[in-house]
Amino acid sequence: MRRALLRVGMWAVSLALVCPTPLWASLTFSLDQVDFTQDGSLVVADSEWGQFNVAYDQGSSLEWINLVANPGSDPQWIVQNHPLVPSSLTGTSSFSSTSYFDLGITRGTDLSSLDVLALVTSTPLSGAPTSGSLQTVDLGEAFAIINSGVPSGFTALNPPTPIPVSFGAPFLGVETGWHTGMPNVVQEQNFCGPGAATNSLHWLNAQHNYGLTQTLEETQTELAGNMGNANTGNWDDTEVQGKLQYALEHNLPLEIHYTGGVKLPTNGNYTEPNGNGTARNDGPITWEWLQREFARGQDIELMTNTHWVVMEGFISWDDVHLFGYRDDPFQNGSATTPAQLQTINNRHVWTYFSNGRVHIGNGDEVLQAAVAESPIPEPSSLLLLGLGWLSCFGFRRTPRV
Predict the structure, then answer these.
(1) Which of 44, 288, 306, 337 is most buried (CB neighbours < 10 A)?
(2) CATH topology of domain 174-397
(3) Phi, psi dihedrals of residue 222, rounded to the nearest 5°
């Protein structure tokens, strides 16, 4: 067993590029083997899941990092086109992000190191790289939760599956979006629902000066009460119920709407049972809806059968849809350690949307519901649809908000 939360095997990389674009001023990455908890207890040690972590000073162009494990003998393309985002997208000068991958081992095997080939490129790769920087990386230990607060009864760890994204599409017409300053509240046990809603509402408050003076934790506690979540998790109907009540009681000019639904009605709108308002049903979940509403400056929470997260950004072209999210992988509340708090503050996770499926915590799952809040009145559609061309490879960025 590796020592908890130790980040070892941190490597600086100076890597070859597919075409001559500026390389990041500095870039380091580390690899972890993930242990999984449930309701505060360790249930899967030394899982087959790996966690990739990268930190870098940002440049002016979108680039990509790829890793191949066991190059030459038994190559496995473990990190596939993890984005390295430019400062113009996020409004920051340095950034860190995470993604998950298949270690290619049997569950319960304590993996101490990996030989990897790493390559940074200016465009996504359609296949595993065969050149780059070769190094041996010692694995650290990371933690994740199987079911972070959706009362579905699903508490078994899903195994890794092949990433259902084909990167062979022409890298043209790329669209991006980012919600700069999206917070990441420290969550209590099974508070992924109120936690995601808290992040959303505080981000909207910062954008529109709604006058909220609560701390993140105070808002989360109030929302959890509204949602009937006594550290027991909550479904999509009570997620919306809690947000409607909160918006009414705090006089927030928000229209709440959603797509999909498990407990939310899939035919007709949702009317809050205590007279706190109605949420509009926008129909089935599609990527087009997610990207459109996000680009309009709306915050979006996503729910599978095991997790709620808040959407932070996206990169999309052709049939390739990548998005970033924020969450708390520990849910230790007031017992959160300084090391865990640092991880939460710096945690930005990249994943995919493919044919209605995502990976936001427990492997590949169906995206069951997406909930958004629309400021009233909405910003000008002409302003929101104004797109600019960025850098030599030409990706369109929706206005950063």
Answers:
(1) 306
(2) Cathepsin B; Chain A (3.90.70)
(3) -65, -45
Could you give the C-alpha distances from 139 to 4, 8, 29, 309, 346, in angstroms and in order? Answer: 11, 6, 11, 26, 19
- 11-145 to CATH, choices 1.20.850, 3.30.1380, 2.60.270, 2.60.40: 2.60.40
- Secondary structure E strands in 319-385: 320-326, 349-354, 357-359, 364-366, 369-375
Task: Give phi and psi for 350, each to the nearest 5.
Answer: -100, 140
CA distance 144 to 39: 11
Rounded CA-CA distance 158/304 in Å is 13
Identify the three-state secondary structure at position 104: coil
Query: Contact, 31 vs 52, CB < 8 A?
Result: yes
- Reported as a single tens digit per residue, the pLDDT across 274-295 is 999 999 999 999 999 999 999 9
pLDDT in tens, 196-250: 999 999 999 999 999 999 999 999 999 999 999 999 999 999 999 999 999 999 9
| End-to-end C-alpha distance for the chain, whole angstroms | 42
- The model scores a pTM over 0.85: yes
260, with CB counted inside 10 A (0-12, 13-18, 19+), is: buried
**How, if at all, do strands 140-145 and 27-38 pair?**
parallel
Q: Are strands 49-57 and 27-38 parallel, antiparallel or unpaired?
A: antiparallel
Q: What is the three-class DSSP state of 197?
A: helix
Token code pair at residue 208: 């529109």
**What are the extents of the domains in the chain?**
11-145, 174-397
Burial class (CB in 10 A: 0-12, 13-18, 19+), 73: exposed
Encoded amino acid at 195, one letter = G
Residue 394 has pLDDT above 60, yes or no: no
Q: Can you read off the two tokens belonging to residue 268? A: 């007709």
What is the maximal distance between C-alpha atoms in the chain? 64
Amino acid at the residue 290: L
The Cα–Cα gap between 128 and 75 comes to 9
Residue 363 CA, chain-centre distance (Å), reads 13
Which residues, 6+ apart, have CB-to-CB distance to 29 below 8 Å? Answer: 10, 11, 13, 52, 53, 54, 55, 65, 67, 118
